[in-house]
């Protein structure tokens, strides 16, 4: 018997929300995925075409996905995808999307749902966006697309949600559900990228003129510290000024940030980045923030507590991809240096986690790649040096194993004036004896 409740998610509510929507987006880490599948499997309906995206750590292209999808569906329903196969030869994402929609429409005249699972494995590039826009635009009335992913990106889904073509299920208790909130008076979207030199976009337009470094630095500080007091701000930026002097400079700088945002917004009003409440400066409700560092930290933290290895692998891969370069690498303020080091350590942890997962799967060469990258971020980790030495030896790369031991020995001598641990020396001696 089909359960009507799954962790406070009702079937009636689920069905009512998704009815007559071209696209159903199932938000990550919710029970809607199981509910959606169970609805079809337990009701005995034939209107579900299920496809799980191929691929491992490396993203796959939409062309690869479409080709594999029609092959998999054909094994279940017979001949399928004639128009899609023809479109694939032209390698045009728009034509592939339109052709797939046409093939689904021809497959059945009764309602049918194409459920694509693990969409996060696809390379979410411009080709993917063009495919989705063309595909959804060409969907017949009786065909619906359902998407499940461990990461739900703003593009290309936000436009479909805003137009009413898509519904997001599972954001009821999520702190970032505002990303897909439909508003009668849309708020400006502020995208902040702090890995590397750092840059800011408002509604897709970059801010290039900051009228000095101070407004730019304060904006990054606000993004990285979403709940901060005035005293904390003054202590970081103007510790030598009196409270009155610091207050004047602060308000002038804060006003410049607002001016830079307003210049990129094609609507009336003043759009402030922060608002003051009960002694704290916190995110303003006049704008929507997207911050790559926040996404990175969340991915690493979730990976460290995840119990499913596939989920861990995805989260670590996502974090590694987000970390383009050291945090705000051209700013040398003390708070930036401390934060840069924290994030560097988290990045090293993500590389280590990914390396160990690969080693556990028997993929020693990929494991070696991740762990050697981790040592560039954290050369003090003797346990990782030891694992790298073991992997080199296992792969028959004895000279590399011995060279890695030499690098570790030199590093420990130069920085700490100590020798490697006994187990590391024992590993070295074993490799040397085997070489003889």
Beta-strand proportion: 5-15%
Distance between the termini: 67 Å
How many β-strand stretches?
14
The CATH C-level class name of the largest domain: Alpha Beta
Topology of helices and strands:
Elements (H helix, E strand, L loop, with lengths): L4 E2 L2 E2 H8 L4 E4 L5 H12 L4 E5 L9 H16 L4 H9 L2 H15 L4 E6 L8 H13 L4 E6 L8 H7 L2 E4 L19 E5 L5 E4 L2 E2 L6 H12 L3 E2 H8 L5 H21 L10 E4 L2 E4 L4 E4 H14 L3 H14 L11 H27 L3 H14 L4 H13 L3 H19 L5 H14 L1
Parallel strand pairs: 3-6, 3-7, 4-5, 5-6, 8-14
Antiparallel strand pairs: 1-2, 8-9, 9-10, 11-13, 12-13
Helix pairs in contact: 4-5, 5-6, 8-10, 11-12, 11-13, 12-13, 13-14, 14-15, 15-16, 15-17, 16-17
Structure, described:
The protein has three domains: 176 residues, 3-Layer(aba) Sandwich (Rossmann fold), CATH 3.40.50; 103 residues, Winged helix-like DNA-binding domain superfamily/Winged helix DNA-binding domain (Arc Repressor Mutant, subunit A, Orthogonal Bundle); 142 residues, Tetratricopeptide repeat domain (Serine Threonine Protein Phosphatase 5, Tetratricopeptide repeat), CATH 1.25.40.10. The N and C termini lie far apart (67 Å). α4 packs antiparallel against α5. The protein is built from 17 helices and 14 strands. The strands form four sheets. The chain has a five-stranded parallel sheet with strand order 4-5-6-3-7, sandwiched between helices. The protein has a four-stranded mixed sheet with strand order 10-9-8-14. Strands 11-13-12 form a three-stranded antiparallel sheet. The protein is α/β, with parallel strands linked by helices. The longest helix is centred in the last third of the chain and has 27 residues.
């Amino acid at each position: 018997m089909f359960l009507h409740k799954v962790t406070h998610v009702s079937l009636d509510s689920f069905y009512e929300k998704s009815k007559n929507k071209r696209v159903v987006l199932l938000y990550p880490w919710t029970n809607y995925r199981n509910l959606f599948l169970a609805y079809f499997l337990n009701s005995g309906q034939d209107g579900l075409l299920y496809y799980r995206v191929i691929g491992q750590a490396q993203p796959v292209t939409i062309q690869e996905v479409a080709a594999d999808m029609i092959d998999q569906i054909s094994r279940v329903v017979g001949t399928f995808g004639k128009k899609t196969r023809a479109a694939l030869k032209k390698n045009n994402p728009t034509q592939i999307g339109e052709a797939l929609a046409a093939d689904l429409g021809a497959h059945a005249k009764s309602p049918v749902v194409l459920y694509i699972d693990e969409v996060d494995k696809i390379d979410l590039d411009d080709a993917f966006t063009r495919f989705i826009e063309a595909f959804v635009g060409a969907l017949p009335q009786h065909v619906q697309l359902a998407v499940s992913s461990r990461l739900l990106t703003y593009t290309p889904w936000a436009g479909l949600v805003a137009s009413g073509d898509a519904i997001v299920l599972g954001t009821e208790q999520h702190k970032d559900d505002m990303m897909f909130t439909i508003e009668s008076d849309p708020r400006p979207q502020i995208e902040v990228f702090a890995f590397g030199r750092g840059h800011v976009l408002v509604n897709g337009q970059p801010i290039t003129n900051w009228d000095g470094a101070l407004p730019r630095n304060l904006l990054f500080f606000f993004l990285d510290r979403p709940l901060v007091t005035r005293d904390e701000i003054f202590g970081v930026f103007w510790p030598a000024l009196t409270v009155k002097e610091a207050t004047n400079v602060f308000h002038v700088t804060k006003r410049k940030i607002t001016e830079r945002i307003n210049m990129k917004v094609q609507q009336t009003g003043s759009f402030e980045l922060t608002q003051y409440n009960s002694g704290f400066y916190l995110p303003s409700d006049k704008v929507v923030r997207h911050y790559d560092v926040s996404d990175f930290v969340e991915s690493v933290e979730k990976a460290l507590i995840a119990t499913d290895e596939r989920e861990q692998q995805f989260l670590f891969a996502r974090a590694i991809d987000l970390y383009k370069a050291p945090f705000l690498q051209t700013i040398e303020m003390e708070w930036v240096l401390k934060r840069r080091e924290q994030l560097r350590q988290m990045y090293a942890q993500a590389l280590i986690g990914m390396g160990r997962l690969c080693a556990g799967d028997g993929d020693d060469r990929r494991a070696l790649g991740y762990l050697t990258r981790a040592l560039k971020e954290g050369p003090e980790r003797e346990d990782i040096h030891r694992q790298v030495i073991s992997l080199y030896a296992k792969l028959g790369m004895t000279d590399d194993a011995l060279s890695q031991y030499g690098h570790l020995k030199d590093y420990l001598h130069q920085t700490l004036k100590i020798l490697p641990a006994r187990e590391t020396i024992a590993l070295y001696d074993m490799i040397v004896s085997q070489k003889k």
